[in-house]
Structures are given as structure tokens and as C-alpha cells.
Design a protein that fits this description.
It is a single chain. The protein is α+β, with helices and mostly antiparallel strands. Helices cover 34% and strands 17% of the residues. Strands 1, 2, 3, 4, 5, 6, 7, 8, 9, 10, 11, 12 and 13 form a 13-stranded mixed beta sheet that branches. The chain is globular and about 60 Å long.
Amino acid sequence: MTDLRYRAEAPTRRPAVWTPDLLAKVDWRRRAAAEPFRGVAGPEGPRPDLFPLRTTGVDVGGARRAAEEYLAALTPAQLATGRFAIDDVTWRHWANGARYFLRHGLCLEDLDDGTRHRALAVVRAALSAAGYAQVVDLMHLNLTIGELRGEEHLLNEWLYWFSVYGEPERGGPWGWQLDGHHVNVNCVFVGDQMVLTPTFLGAEPVVAESGKYAGTTAFRAEEAVGQALFESLTNRQRERAVIADELPPDLFTGAFRDNHELAYEGLPLGELTSNQRAVAAELIGLYVDRAADGHARVRREEVRAHEHDTYFAWIGGGTPDGVFYYRVHSPVILVEFEHQAGVMFANDTPSRRHIHTVVRTPNGNDYGIDLLRRHHERFHRPPSTEEEQG
């Protein structure tokens, strides 16, 4: 049974005293983010040539205009704090925890209503209606836990940091990041291509039973469809899919694990029946369709092209109300879902009250880095001696 008490010392505050342990955690995060980027990959290393520069035909003008309008509304001081070069290391400083370590950009709480609306308009322009609603719901649930703990000043719907990267007004590669407790979304545009990873979304609790946003729920579909896929498996298929019995302490590729080595494990989707593949496609769609329609379509096609290199892995029991972890892993997408132990609540074992999810683009294209590399090589390569001469 879930313990509904709250932890008296949940990590919600900027520490008054920087203990050696806290300093070590921050130092580890800085060093992890400063490592040369490789991307999540298997033991053999990143697989090359998966993400070519190309034209998608998707209109990105609305997102660019939203970014320009947001930037135009900022003061010089806000611009100095809230925008970064496209290759700035702060892309990799996102963290799902409630503490304020390494936060950067402009906090939505500090913006006036009009500027905050413009910031969220940038997010809305890149996401589908359902994807944007999910992000907002999770921000609302952050206020819910603040209300339950009496810490609305530390946990609320506006304690999220927004950053713009690159120069959207000049037509080059650009992007944005929304970063805070349980909501970490990274979005990069290279031409009319878009990369929406890493995206970490979570909630504790996943249902608001009281407060300003009573009735808000999160991750019910991701939970139910993942369980439905597992329950559809035969005993032989389950033997392949189950990779462990005990849930890991957290997701394998969460914050500061941009270079995590992760082998393919589990059941290949090619071994599913047609009905099971339909459920698997529905599950993947829940994550891919967070993007606006055009880019979601492009992403679905990219993922579908690797269907026979895609694996479904499961950890935990298969009981109707049990807790579990699953992942979908292919050369071009990695999805993780897990029930978590309490952080704000006092339960020390996982429950359905606390959920973490992450989506990544493995093999080097998180943050659009592989596309940005190709863009730089094509359009910003120094001329050769022969080209200079003639």
C-alpha cells in the first residue's frame, strides 16, 4: 500500500549549506555534461549515417515567429540571461529534480504574464495539442504537490526555466529548452527538421485529488498501453521480453546520462503478431505524437523504418495493479517508462503514484547534435586551398 505521508526533508530547496556531498553531486553533473558528446549507444558505439540532412516539407514558420516574438519582448538583461549559442553546454544541464542545481535561462515565475505567454507560445508551436496539454498538466501537478506539502513557493506551476538557443531571427539552426521539476523538454530545429529529445516527463502524484487543478491526471495511457502490450505476449514472448525482476532505481538514460551505454535487450518487434504490432505502434505513438502533426508524421516514418531493429523490454510483475518498467529501443528512438519510489511521498518502494518517462534519440542525435554537425560540415566548412584559389 502506498504511504501517503510526506517526506519532511524532500529535496525542494536551494541548500542553505553546501555540504561536501552536495558539492560532489554538482561537480559530477558538470563533468558529465562536459564530456564530449557521443549519445546513448550500444557497446559497439554509435551507429553512423542514421540522421541525414533533408527537407521534410513541414512548415516551421510558426515556431520561428513565436520565438522571435518572445525574444523581442525581453529586456537586454533578460536576453543576456535567457538565450545561448546553439552549441552551449547548458543544453546538457537539464535535470528532473526539484532542486535548483545548474538551472539556467529565465524562470517563468519571474516573467510578467505577457512574456510568460510568449514563452509558452514557443513551446505550443512545436508540440501537438495533446503534447502541449500533457506538459501543462505536469506543471500543474507540480503545484499540486506544493499544495499538499504547504510549499507552493518551492513547488508550483511556474518554477520552470526557459532558454532559447541559436538565432531563430536569422534563419539558422535554433531551439529551446523548458527545464524544471518533472518537465524537461529539448527542441532543436535544423532547417525544417525538428528533434524533440531528450524529453523527460514525470509526475508525483499522477492524479490531483484536490487543490487548484483537482482532477488532473498524467500517464494513464502510457501506463495502460504498455501493460496491454505486455499482457498480450505469449509465455514464450514474455521469456524474451522480461530482462529483470526488480525495478532499477531510476531510468537508465535520465539526466546527465547523455553517453550511457545501453545494449538492445528484450523481444524484437518483428516477432510480434500483427495485432501486437498495432499495440506497439500505439504505444510508440503516445511518445512520438507529443510533437506537432507534421514532425510527428516524419518521426513515425523514421521509427517505422527500423521496426525490425526495435526491441520491447520489461521489468517487474505482470499483475493488473503491479509496478513495472518498460522500454522501447531502436537505432533511432529510445523510450523508457518506470513506476518510482516516493520522493515527495514517504513510500520507499515503487508505486503507481510516481512515474518517470524519457524519450531519447540514440546514436548521437539527442539535442539534434548529429544534424547540427552535418549542417556545419555542409554550410560552414572552411574552404579548401583549391576552392580558395579558384
